[in-house]
Amino acid sequence: MNFRSTLSTKNSSLTKAAVLILLSAFTIADGYAQKTKWPGSIAGKSKQDTTAKTAEIKKSNLKKFSEVIPAGTKADGGLFNIYKVDQKYYYEIPDSLLGREMLVVTRFTQTPVALKESRAQYGGEMINNQVWKWERRDKQIFIRVPSYTYVADASSDLHQALENSNALPILAVFDIKAFSSNGKGVLIDITDFYNGDIPGMSLPEGLKKTYKISGIDNTRSYVDTVKSFPQNVEVKTVKTYRSPELPADKSVGAMTFGLNTSMVLLPKEPMKARTENKRIGYFTERQLDFSVSDKHVTPTAYIQRWRLEPKDEAAYSRGELVEPKKQIVYYIDPATPKKWVPFLIQGVNDWNTAFEAAGFKNAIVAKEAPTAQEDPEFSTEDARYSVIRYFASSTENAYGPRIADPRSGEIMESHIGWYHNVMSLLRSWFFVQTAAINPAARGTEISDAQMGQLVRFVSSHEVGHTLGLLHNFGSSAAFPVDSLRSKTFTAKYGTAPSIMDYARFNYIAQPGDGITEIYPKIGAYDQFAIKFGYTYFPAQQSAKEEKKVLDAMIMKKSKDPVYFYGKQGSIDPRAQSEDLGDNAMKASTYGIENLKRILPNIEKWTYEPGKELEDANDLYYEVIRQYRRYVNHVVSNISGLQEDVKTVDEPGAVYSYTPKAKQQQAIAFLNKQVFTTPNWLLNKSMMARVDYGVVNNRIMEMQNQVLTSLLETYGFARMIDDEVKNGNNAYTVTNLLTDLRVAIFANETPDVFKRALQRAYADRLGVLLKLDKPVVESSYAIMGITPYNPNSSDMRLLVRAELKKLNANVKALQVTATTLLIKSHYEDLADRINKILNPKI
Predict the structure, then answer these.
(1) Which of 48, 322, 529, 670 has the fewest CB atoms within 10 Å, measured from its CB?
(2) Contact at 8 Å (CB) between 101 and 268?
């Protein structure tokens, strides 16, 4: 999924999250497909009925094939025969393919210059995918779009009931122009269809909205090429849309896009689906199955994975490593700078060690795309090929999507997106996380060899997504913090057991530790996850039998933290982005010590004669951002709720709060590193060189943000819940408020930052006191949006009590104030608190 440390780095017309939601809507049960039979369709009639119907239509006024397609017209043979006559394109659809599912993927081939930063705006990026069925009714051909959200086995009593409430929408209708000369197919004109603005083959709605696109201009749009291959048809179009809000030259009044639509025949028999296990992170196809139980609807989920089958099943069953019948192959975009190609290839090939855990050798490979001379039919948009696409973009990102058969989860292809400016992001991270111990991270430019290793790491991460793997943000918590300061440990294990974590570079290691291996690598969890997803079982072994074996395999590792899966978006403090080690307070302290070493050396370590200070400016603010990451890792421990998936047979808690001692450790860290002014960030020498009057405000905003995160209703709700369940063993709201007040209102002369923090504390308590809208229970609770009702909760009582204590504290400080400014500050603060407690005054 997205390489940046956000849920969605690029929000746009079609984000990666939106693609995943769309894919998850298409699912089906293991080993069978919905068999909706429509009146008049070839799929729903006997051979005798079809023959009679065809004979009847032949008597009508349809033209002969030769009247539509002149003699001598060359057919482009393949899945469908394609004919071009007088700028019109025709499909000849054989009867044998009517009713077959086909996966349809539409991608950009070209986009206008200067589009606003948004997903799906570069050549090669996907717009949409659908499943189509071509069906015939009388003199017409329909395209229907099946949904696999709801399923029932054809033998189930509920199958017909489900069909009755699951009508497949009709995407398009075509008049039959003629029958095939052999009588075993139909001819339709598809020119206007592909040249039109068809849902699923059009611009994303977000893009249309951004640029106020009013519609397609058919006079400036056309079908460029239509090519047929044995398993797919590729259609390239050029489409012009009317728009008053153009990204560049507004005088044109329109923007033009190049699109490619791939239609790929899905297997007649879907691959045997594999049921998910919540202790391993895979993308899934989700459904509601009406045939599992006659008493209720059963939600099921099948993992997305490539079809890997051994060439030699006998050798595989003996435990020998066996090559697959069909390798997973990725092609490198010809537009990729040549110096990065070997590293992108290595990033792909590195996964072979993981596939060996599943019994396969040489399972995956990356190759340079063939030239036009080597293969004139090859296209990077062709859905038969998986490609690492290189985008000339200022976006600092990369991402790894996959297109899967919605009936089984079988991955059909992937187009990894690689934005050129991800190198800038990597360089910044590499500097602020490792420059204190790693001279190779210093300098205005890091070497190509060094950057190549960073490219390799990102390539491996994104390929992991295209193999079906989700982020595992909990992986890095398996390693003790001090182990990451060990040369031998890091040389063997890297920074985390999974490259699918956002465990970047080793920011924990200190000067003198001698650490040389500072990168993440494909680790034990990745190997185990591939073993779970790709171990081959004979065809005669049912999905239920497979599940039993795989579940037992996972149970054996369930108590080993190396194999822990922490899902993205969880409030489990072990599952965080950009963190390392099993103790955020200890790890972040080491990280800050390294930032203190880096900050005063930024200019020295990036010196280049005559160079302007832009680089030093960027890295100074990158240090501040990295510091905030370390701080936020600690904040997550306050009111944190751990989740350990268990079966009914396993004893112990599934949900457990962060131990009180660890929460106290977190507050002590924040009081020292945040609420005590971090003067080391206010480096006078650096500020004189690059600060234009914003650093002070950024520090205040950071302190305020941390304070707000701590004084937040969802966290309070969990802390009250913790106290109900665990009594004196819980870290309570009162404990938190007392610890904060003692630190923020220490008996000292407050500087400008501490004064702002004291005001923010009082103001935030005032906000909490006024809240009266309940947050209802929802599925988002496990992501931190915990339900609460301020009207019935003790929350207001606790806040009011704290405000009264604070009021007394402030009045005492006012008496001891030694300067007019400080005295005025406490007078103002006392007035604020009084108005909060007595709003009618």
Answers:
(1) 48
(2) no
User: Could you write out the DSSP letters of every residue in 254-278?
Assistant: EEEEEEEEEEEEPPSSPPPP-B--T
How many CB atoms sit inside 10 A of residue 138's CB? 11
Q: How many CB atoms lie within 10 A of CB 175?
A: 10
Please report the pLDDT score of residue 401 as a whole number: 87
Nearest to 484, CA basis, from 564, 565, 575, 584:
584
In whole angstroms, how large is the CA radius of gyration of the chain?
A: 31
Tokens for 346? 């290595």
How many whole angstroms from its chain centre is CA 685?
40
What span, in angstroms and rounded, lies between the C-alpha atoms of 363 and 353? Answer: 9
How far is residue 429's CA from residue 424's CA, in Å, rounded to a whole number? Answer: 9
Residue 483 in contact with residue 491, Cβ under 8 Å?
Answer: no
Q: Which tens digits make up the pLDDT trace of 272-328?
A: 999 999 999 999 988 776 555 555 567 788 999 999 999 999 999 999 999 999 999
pLDDT over 60 (residue 18): no
Q: What is the enclosing helix (H) or strand (E) of 752?
A: helix 752-770
Topology (CATH) of 305-545: Collagenase (Catalytic Domain) (3.40.390)
CB 79 within 8 A of CB 185: no
Q: Which residues contact 72 (CB under 8 A, 6 or more apart)?
A: none
Beta bridge partners of 287: 300
Residues 122, 282: Cα–Cα separation, whole Å: 27
SS3 content of the chain, % helix, strand, coil (to 5): 40, 15, 45
Contact assessment for residue 78 and residue 95, using Cβ atoms and an 8 Å cutoff: no
Instruction: Grade residue 118 by pLDDT with cuts at 50, 70 and 90.
Output: low
Helix-helix angle 660-673:733-744, to 10 degrees: 20
The Cα-based distances of 473 to 203, 210, 280, 552 in angstroms read: 33, 33, 12, 24
**CA separation (Å) from 805 to 164, 292, 708, 742, 822?**
66, 59, 19, 11, 20
Using the predicted structure, report yes or no on whether residue 236 has a pLDDT greater than 60: yes
Q: Do 760 and 703 meet the contact criterion of CB atoms below 8 Å apart?
A: yes
The helix (H) or strand (E) run that includes residue 241 is: strand 232-242
User: Side by side, which strands form the sheet with 284-289?
Assistant: 150-151, 284-289, 298-303
Question: How, if at all, do strands 386-391 and 328-332 pair?
Answer: parallel
> Which SS3 state, helix, strand or coil, does residue 507 take?
coil
Helix (H) / strand (E) element for 236: namely: strand 232-242
Instruction: Please report, for the chain, the start and end positions of each structural domain, with discontinuous segments joined by +.
Output: 16-303, 305-545, 711-841
